[in-house]
Amino acid sequence: MQAAVTTATLHGVDAVRVEVQADVSPGLPVFGIVGLPDVAVQEARDRVRAALRTSGYEFPNSRVIVNLAPAPLRKHGTGFDLPIALAVLCATGQLPARAFDNVAAVGELGLDATVREVPGMLAHAIGAVTRGDALLGPADAHDVVSAVPGLSFRGLQHLAALRQGLPAVSATTEAEVPQACDPQVRLEDIAGHDIAKRCLIVAAAGGHHVLLTGPPGSGKTLLARALAGLLPPLNERERLESALIHSVAGLDPRPCIEGRRPFRAPHHSSTVAGLVGGGTPPRPGEISLAHNGVLFLDELPEFPPAALQALRQPVEEGVVTLVRAHGAVRYPGRVTLVSAMNPCPCGYAGDPQRVCTCASGAVTRYQSRIGGPLFDRMDMTIRVDRIDPELLLSDSPRQGPTTDEARSIVSGALSFAAAGRPQGLRGTLTRTARVQLEGAARTARMSGRAVTRLLRVARTLADLERSTSIQDVHVAEALAYRSWEPS
Amino acid sequence: MSARTFVLELGQPGYPPQLADTPDPPKRLYGIGDPSLLAPGLAIVGARKATPYGLRATRLFASWAAGVELAVISGAAIGCDGEAHRAAIDAGGTTIAVLGCGADVDYPRRSAGILAHMRQHTAVLSELPFGTPPARWAFVRRNRIIAGLSRALLVVEAGLPSGTFSTADAALDAGRDVFVVPGSIFSPESRGSNRLMSQGAVPVTDVSELANALGMSGTRAIHSSVQIECDSVARALAADPQRPDDLARALGIDIVSAARTLGRLEASGAIVRYPDGRYGVG
Fold first, then answer.
1. Is the pLDDT of residue B226 over 70?
2. Which residue of A lies nearest to B187 if distances are taken between CA atoms?
3. Which of A107, A293, A335, B1 is the most buried (most CB within 10 A)?
4. Which of A192, A360, A385 sits opposite B277 (nearest CB)?
């Protein structure tokens, strides 16, 4: 007897359809899985055997061969447990032969036959919708997969529940209106640093990359964390994109589904694979997990040079393409890159009070670890210095906008940029602004990319004022935030 | 080794007489270039971590010295030293480097270009044999040669602590005048030079002052006074380089208009951004 059940395996953020075929024939009792399964899939044999027995079904005492088609595609993960069990049940006549037509089954089985969540449930859900299938999977995944519009999901708690037939389609819960996250650090809690705060608002409104340099303890990390609170909640499309990557990486996608912007702060010991993605099977890196959010790299020069240089292309293009022998995998990675660094190994170069003890060569070497190409991609480079204790301890109200005010300014700029003005950059530049930009670009010997990036910052500054055209004041301000050359 | 190398023995003809008169003259001078250029010159020394202000002052005085045919003597270090050589070369004058390693060794590496130029057209000296690698102690020792070869020493910008002090001490021991370019009392990079001044070094605020003190004509002097835009921001920055936050606070303007003015002034070249994030008049 033969039977087939549909499932999928992950390739990047896509669920690729796989057919689980089971053949039960007379002969010596054997249970084999073919079709390039990895170790986790091979182990499914023991879990399926035990789960069938505990749920009151019978594992056939004959020759069982399971094939995963298409056979040349590598299969990985524990999500194959459920479809293998179903295929065996159908092939032995314990369930109707065509019970799972137009259903994709995904889930891990416990020895007690409970159906458990696997990484990438969202990817499986999206795959099922595009193929027009229903998804049969762990009931626990209901709140995650209900974020996918148009999905009919049949949640299964326990394998034994199939005795009552296929589970009913769960009602889709209406997604709650996303709330902006409660930030750990609010702008009004930070004394001084006016220009850095202004840059954070600009970065939030335009997704610009920021580099904060300054001596230890001056507030770089604090400022970077405050950025998370300035971003409006994820919109519907962004929520699904970000949640999908978290799901595929095996992390909890629920915060993203609730609309919370990702804020990733990997430690500086991170590897290339950890930062941009990689491994076997490929896993998304931190830049993809921060997609639609903030990637914060504290102590930038301490990161391995290879990892930093690997960031160059994704930071520019918003997508990571990992090419491996088995094929290419693409992960999105559109982030606002915020990085912080000390100006030199001792940390005090340029400090007004403390003397830098580094040799002058050491300072240059330290700063050159970042490299010109990555430096060129920083839209705003801001010096953050220790502030006057008097300012820090004074009871007078802080200057500048609060986090809530800043967030509404940012939202206003974003909606103006999206709908309120003509798109494109060059057409909206006034004549005086163009003259000023040309002059500055020539004096500072800016690269084409630097000019374009500067123009983008100027565009955001104009958006913040709801100005249709980019004026000379916007160009001037953008120039003040851009580092003219790696110093 | 190039044919232009020379070795001068103390007490032999050709050895610079002004150096032989100092308390501790080197027994031998190894050099590359033209030994006839070792007439008493103007030593200009200053911090390696020089600010744009220090570099600009160095260029001003070094170009003047080159113009009045006074050799500019310095140590080829990065910062003020290198700028002094470069300015003298640009002005077509004589400039001589004294190294703490062999005269044929390119150290620091970043000065390789100006060293090559000086070996070709003027002279590079050392008391250490050719090929000697750089050593820390040797740089302190060579400072007395820089002082001894000169008729006066000009300290442009020095922090605290600074190797410039050993040059100043050597100059005093050899009976040379020590001049100092004053700096802001708030600038850490000027703390050492201002200290020298309070200890009795002569401040120079203009080329003509230095010219008079050295008994030379100041006719070819270049004016050091800067044309300042009638702008409160530019005027505040000319008085004291500041960070944008402090500037906005001091002038009582909001940070956005401060950033816009700074961006505009920087683009027009009226002000420059220092490596430490402050803005000042370049």
1. no
2. A352
3. A107
4. A385
Domain-located, residue A449? no
Residue B20's CATH number: 3.40.50.450
Residues B75 and B132 occupy one common structural domain: yes
Same domain, yes or no: B133 and B270 = no
Task: Give me the domain span that covers residue B268.
Answer: 232-280
Contact B264 A356 (CB under 8 A): no
Best A190, A213, A355 residue to mutate vs chain B (most B CBs within 10 Å) = A355
What is the residue range of A83's domain? 2-164
CB B266 within 8 A of CB A480: yes
* DSSP E strand stretches across B202-264: 202-203
Share of chain A above pLDDT 70, in %: 96
- Give the long-range contacts of residues A273-277, CB within 8 A, separation 24 or more: A274/A307, A275/A303, A275/A307, A275/A310, A275/A311, A276/A307, A276/A310, A276/A311, A276/A314, A276/A320, A276/A322, A276/A333, A277/A320, A277/A322, A277/A329, A277/A331
Cα B234 to Cα A121, A262, A273, B237, B265: the distances in Å are: 60, 42, 49, 5, 8
Q: What is the CATH number of the domain that holds B268?
A: 1.10.10.10
Q: Do residues A202 and A294 both lie within one domain?
A: yes
Best to test chain B binding among A223, A381, A383 (most B CBs inside 10 Å): A383
pLDDT at A89: 95
Count of structural domains, chain A: 2
Residue A454 belongs to a domain: no
Write out pLDDT tens, residues B177-222: 999 999 888 888 889 999 999 999 999 988 888 888 888 765 444 4
Which chain A residues contact residue B78 at CB under 8 A?
A: 360
Crossing angle of helices A194-206 and A403-415, rounded to 10°? 40
Give the per-residue pLDDT at A52: 95
Q: Are residues A143 and A201 in the same domain?
A: no
Beta carbons of A436 and B256 less than 8 Å apart:
no
CATH number, domain containing residue A275: 3.40.50.300
* Four-CA torsion A424, A426, A432, A435, nearest 10 degrees: 150
Q: Which residues in chain B are contacts of A435 at CB distance < 8 A?
A: none
Given an 8 Å threshold on Cβ–Cβ distance, is B244 in contact with A400?
Answer: no
Give the CATH number of the domain where residue A15 resides: 3.30.230.10
Based on the domain organization, do B138 and B267 belong to the same domain?
no
Task: Summarize pLDDT for B90-105 with one digit per residue, the tens.
Answer: 999 999 999 999 999 9
Share of chain B above pLDDT 90, in %: 51
Distance linking the first and last C-alpha atoms of chain A: 74
Counting the structural domains of chain B, the total is: 2
pTM for the predicted model, two decimal places: 0.77
Q: Which of residues B183, B213, B243 is at a domain's end? A: B213
- Residue tagged 């007690």 (tokens): A112
Q: Which of these three, A374, A392, A420, is where a domain ends?
A: A420
Q: How far apart (Å, rounded) are the C-alpha atoms in residues B225 and B205?
A: 10
Q: Are residues B99 and B15 in the same domain?
A: yes
Q: Mean pLDDT throughout A267-288?
A: 90
CB-CB contact of A62 with A128 (8 Å): no
